[in-house]
Amino acid sequence: MNSDQKRKTKLDLTNEIKPPNVPNSCTPSGIEVPVIVTPDMVDFSNVGDPGQYPFTRGIFESGFRGRLWTIRQYSGFGTAEESNQRYKFLLEQGQTGLSVALDLPTQCGYDPIDPMARAEVGKVGVSLSNLAEVELLFDGIDVGGISTSFTINGTAAISYAMYCAVADNKGVPREKLTGTIQNDILKEYVARGTWIFPVKPSMRLIADTILFSNEHTPKFNAISIAGAHVRDAGCTAIEEMGYTLANGLAYTDELIRRGGDVEKFARRLSFFFYVHMDFFEEICKFRAGRRLWAKLMKERYNVQDPKAQMFRFGVVCGGSSLIGAQPHNNIVRVGTETMAAVLGGAQSIFTCAFDEAFQIPTEHSAEIALRTQQIIAHESGIARTVDPLGGSYYVEWLTDQMESGMAKTIEEIEQYGGVEKAVEDGWLQMKIAKRASERKQASDSGKNVIVGQNYFRRENQSEGVGEIFKLDPKATANVIAKYEHVLDTRNSSEVKKSLAALEAAALDDKKNLIPYLIDCCHAYATVGEMISTLKGKWGEFQEPVRF
Amino acid sequence: MTLLGKRILIAKPGLDGHDVGAKIIALALRDAGADVIYTGLRKSPVYIARVAVDEDVDAVGLSILSGSHKEIVFQTLECLNELDASDIKIFVGGTIPQQDYEGLIAAGVSGVFTAEMTIDDVLLAIDKELTA
User: Fold this and answer.
1) pLDDT at residue A13 above 50?
2) How does pLDDT run across A320-337, given as a tens digit for each residue?
């Protein structure tokens, strides 16, 4: 018996339930798919051309022929120095943009010595409590020549201020800065949980960042409206896009209220999603969302400039679609999802490492994730022509179905009283928790097949992970030592002065807070100090605990 | 199952905001007849131990996905100990690497649950510990 046969026998023996032998006829969003889609079922007049309203086939006339998507791997851990080393490694390997992961204390506005923070310093990302850390993070990296994405929300305005301050210190003009801050607080209340302030002042801070950025860093995306987290929290692809577009509309209304010009700021709104495993549903999610957003911009806000109607988005492939059992299978999942992202017309892609379901990726697993994108970009040929699936009966039909589902999701929220109310009441949170329960039941019961988890299991499922990533145990002590050094050496009267100015501006709705935050950063005020100052004036969000 | 009437506190310690797992378990325990209290996000071990004692719970489920499970679990066990409440069972769920299971159990944790387990298995394990 050769080893292949042996493996087969072993799999069959340990397989407890018989898997279905036909595909599920229903998509995960609940769309019943006919065996055959025929031309009469599709309204082709809705499709249009690439680069033309309503952008079903993509925002660029020449697709990826003009330029490939940005390969952007999320990384950052422990200390700024360690992250700086990994960034340099990734840039040398051909990565074209940086993506900074921050630790939870930085994301929630606590300094590393805070009792709430201590256990989490440097755990899920790098600790950036003050400008000195940001200087170390970008040491030897040309911030004017790369694009940097910060996954930060509750304290996004501060990260943005730090990036401007670091550019100032390096002598790089601010207008040369490119990159993205996530800065999408609405979904934090629903899924990711790094909220700090109540909804209203949070919306102000976001509008301040966008308005300032449009003027001073015109190539920087000051918001990335993200559906990824609500998706991972349990909702379907249709709801992911529906909720995200609803949030996009809420920010648009707030910016208009603050005097922003929609023709101008809408050009720099960008979006961010997960790609999960249902291949065509994911592709059509992007085609439908892109079309619906363009229609909303044109019909609701009378936006004329095509650039301000364009739906630009980045994705992450992986997330909760990756599982801990038989972890190498995740490489195949990420590859499939990456192809869906490309066929859906993503502007930037981040591929998760196969071990990300249970640990911080190692250099080895991170490299495989990066190579996955390069193989798809350069070997598969799928980027060769614009929207190669355009005109397919099934793809256009499913795009139509998804679009009308998304429109219904938006309508439902608006009927409830809008996103802000839905979040303050905990209504949206409860809906998503219910969906998560349903999704879990569908996999527990075997209705949804997840290879290795509920079917095709074997003994020792998590074997073969190989190397295990170890955080330097001295990292926390190192971060705290540097933090204390900054407190000892900075000019404390400058700190006091800048924080007092921030405090006064916080009470004046007409002031834009970003210049005040940049002054605080230059004075080496810490994230904790800036956030406490604002909390003193604005209070904290009271989480509606409903389930 | 005898979860009927059992009092269980589901808690989110630390700064991690991923509460899906916590809520799924809370809903499932409630459906199984338990009295469930959910703390909401960002609670300190001291707070969680205090609520557990005040609410006279049979068990506490800690949900942690940020990799800080060891520190947080040890602190919570210590706080319960200080309040003379080490009879309250502690369960941990979230992103917990397999190599950490042993240490957590040795420290006094009654069960470690990950996303791959079915809800039924989680409920059975809790039930078994609470009736033992």
Assistant:
1) no
2) 899 888 999 999 999 999
Total domains in chain A come to 1
Considering only CB atoms, which chain B residues are within 8 Å of A194?
15, 17
Does A473 fall in a domain? no
CA A231 vs CA A64, A331, A339, A343, A498: distances in Å: 27, 20, 19, 20, 39
Give me the residues of chain B with pLDDT under 70, please.
Answer: 1
pLDDT tens sequence across A352-385: 999 887 777 888 898 899 999 999 999 999 999 9
Closest by Cβ to A547, choosing from B23, B44, B120 = B23
Tell me if A352 is assigned to some domain: yes
Does B1 lie at the interface with A, CB-CB under 8 angstroms?
no
Of B14, B20, B41, Cβ closest to residue A436: B20
- Provide the chain A residues 112-131 that lie in CB contact (below 8 A) with chain B: 115-120, 123-124
Give the range of the structural domain holding residue A76, as residue numbers without chain letter. Answer: 39-444
CATH superfamily of B7-131: Cobalamin-binding domain (3.40.50.280)
pLDDT at A260 (0 to 100)? 96
Predicted ipTM beyond 0.90: no
Residue A337 CA to residue A102 CA, distance in Å, equals 25
In a domain, residue A221? The reply is: yes
Q: Select from B30, B38, B75 the Cβ nearest to the Cβ of A545.
A: B38
CATH number, residue A421: 3.20.20.240
Q: How confident is the model at residue A9 (pLDDT cuts 50, 70, 90)?
A: very low
- 3-state helix/strand/coil string of A209-261: HHHHHHHHCCCEECCEEECHHHHHCCCCHHHHHHHHHHHHHHHHHHHHHCCCC
Cβ under 8 Å to A: B residues 41-80: 41-42, 44, 66-68, 71-72, 75
Distance CA B20, CA B64 (A): 11
Q: Are the Cβ atoms of A115 and B44 closer than 8 angstroms?
A: yes
Q: What is the pLDDT of residue A421?
A: 95
Which pair of tokens denotes residue A350? 């981040």
